[in-house]
Amino acid sequence: MSFLSDNIRTIRKMHGCTQFAMAEVLGIGFRTYVRYESGERPPPPSTLVQIARLGGLSLDQLLTTKTQADDLTQEDFVSGIIKKPHVLGGSLASGRLTIKGIAEDILVCLDRQESDAVNRFKNLSAEQKEKYILDAEWTLKNKRKLSPYLKRTPKSVIKKKNIERLKNLAQCYNEKSAL
Questions:
Q1: What is the predicted pLDDT for the residue at 78?
Q2: What's the confidence (pLDDT) of residue 135?
Q3: What pLDDT is stored for residue 147 in this prediction?
Q4: Chain mean pLDDT for the chain
Q5: When you count CB atoms within 10 A of the terminal residue's CB, does the N or C end of the chain come out lower?
Q6: How far from 171 is each of 48, 143, 161, 167, 179, CA to CA, in Å?
Q7: 8-state DSSP, 153
Q8: In which residue ranges of the chain is pLDDT below 70?
Q9: What pairing do the DSSP bridges indicate for beta strands 77-78 and 81-82?
Q10: How many Å apart are CA 84 and CA 50, to the nearest integer?
Q11: Alpha carbons 51 and 80: distance in angstroms, whole number
Q12: What tens digit of pLDDT does each residue of 60-93 get?
């Protein structure tokens, strides 16, 4: 084992990640990551830079000095303010981000309605939250049972509205081209 492989393992453990999660964060295959951590294979420079950033180390420290978990810092998070956020995982599409220096996930809201709903949920008591989650799970599981009671617009009505919209659009284009 070299300093590098020990340091890679220490950084992973500091973040509380599995080898699989660390491989995903670095954008490499699981087996490739395992080889880096075991010292069988050296990582390419681009991956070394990513690993050093995750540990808050310089490349020199990562490659030449055995570091302990106490030596690793999470400088981005100081007194509740994120100075330079570094996204480790998640996506806007899933509505969840993992940011270096913060133990829990951050929920991302794409619009005002979503933000209001999340804030209302946060303000509920523990009992209300549990009931809300149970109700939501039941609703998702029983969607088909509920579908007869949901108001649906018939396809023929939707088609008629689309045809009318297209006719109006065509008429507007004809009028503009005549001018």
A1: 40
A2: 86
A3: 65
A4: 76
A5: C
A6: 61, 41, 15, 6, 13
A7: -
A8: 1, 73-110, 144, 146-151, 173, 176-179
A9: antiparallel
A10: 15
A11: 24
A12: 888 888 888 777 755 444 444 444 556 666 665 5
Is domain 3-71 annotated with CATH 1.10.340.30?
A: no
* Residue 59 falls in which region: left (phi positive, over 0), alpha (psi -120 to 50) or beta: alpha
Buried b (16+ CB within 10 A) or exposed e, 120-138: eeeeeeeeeeeeeeeeeee
Q: Which residue has the tokens 């649906």?
A: 152
Q: Which residue has the tokens 């009992």?
A: 127
**How many degrees, rounded to 5, is the angle at CA 165 between CA 163 and CA 169?**
115
Strand partners, 98: 89
State the pTM of this model: 0.43
Calpha distance 18→30 (Å, rounded): 10
Provide φ and ψ at 154, rounded to 5°: -60, 150
- Count CB atoms within 10 A of the CB of residue 71: 15
Domain extent listing, the chain? 3-71, 109-173
The pair of structure tokens assigned to 98 is 């993992």
Q: Looking at residue 109, what is its pLDDT? A: 65
Contacts of 47 (CB under 8 A, 6+ apart): 26, 28, 36
Nearest by Cα to 55 from 36, 72, 78: 72
42 DSSP assignment: P
